[in-house]
Amino acid sequence: METLNAAELLAALGHESRLAIFRLLVEAGPEGINASAIGEQLGMAPATLSFHLAHLSRVGLITGERESRFIHYSANYGTMDDLIAFLTHNCCQGNACLPQTACCDTTEKRRAKAGKKA
Amino acid sequence: METLNAAELLAALGHESRLAIFRLLVEAGPEGINASAIGEQLGMAPATLSFHLAHLSRVGLITGERESRFIHYSANYGTMDDLIAFLTHNCCQGNACLPQTACCDTTEKRRAKAGKKA
DNA sequence: TACATGATTCGATAATACTTGAATCATGGA
DNA sequence: TCCATGATTCAAGTATTATCGAATCATGTA
Q: Which position has the higher pLDDT, A15 or A100?
C-alpha cells in the first residue's frame, strides 16, 4: 500500500461519523445492514449518510449491495487489514505493535473468538 | 480510547504530508530530527511544516523537544500503539487482525528486529 | 400506471482545513 | 548589543469537506 492510499483510508476513518458507521458495520457482520438502519442508529440525515457511505465505499472500506429496495452495507475487512498492516509494518516498523501492547498479545484469544471466519 | 479521540488521530494521519512526517520520525528513531531537516527531506515550506507538526503534536502522535536552536521531533509510539489497539480490538474486533495477514504473523520477526527497545 | 418506500444526487450554504509570505520569537555566538 | 539561524505565529487567500432540504432515481406492489 502506498502512502497516498493509506492517507486516504486514514482520512476516511478520520471523521467521527464515518468511524461510527464503520464500527457499526463491523459489528453487523458480513450480512451488513441497510442505509436507513444506519441512519436511525446514528441519528444522521439520509443525505449526510449517503455522502459518508459514498466516501467509505470509494476508498474501499465498505461495500454496498442492493437487495430489493434496500442496500446492505458491510465492512471490507481486507481493506482494514491492509491498512493495519501498513501502519504496523511500513509505517511503524513494528514499534507500535510489540507483544505486550497493541495487537499481538491476544492473538490466540481473537483467533478463537473469530471462529465466525476471517 | 474513545471514538472521537481515535477519529482525531486517524484524521491527523489522514493527510499525505502528515503521514509522511510521521513515517520519517518513526524512521528517525527516539532521538528524532529537527524541523528544518524534515522540511528539507519532504520539500515543505517552513510555515506549512509547522502547521502540520503542531497538528501531530496536539493529538499526541509526536513530541518536540528544544535542544539549543533546534527542536527535535520524535514519534510517540505509545499513541500509535493505542490507536492500533483501538482499531484491532474496539473497532474491528479482531476481524482485521487475523494471523495470516496483518500484524500477527510476523510478531517474532518484529520482536527480534526491535531489539532497539519497545 | 400509480403509489409508497429506500436510497442517492443536486444545489446551496456553512464550516474547516491547507498553504505560504511576512513578521515574530528563541537561542547562541561575535 | 547586534546579528544569524531555527522555528513558530499571524494573516489572508484558496481549497476542500460537511450538512441537509428538495428533487430524483430505483424497486416492489396494488
A: A15
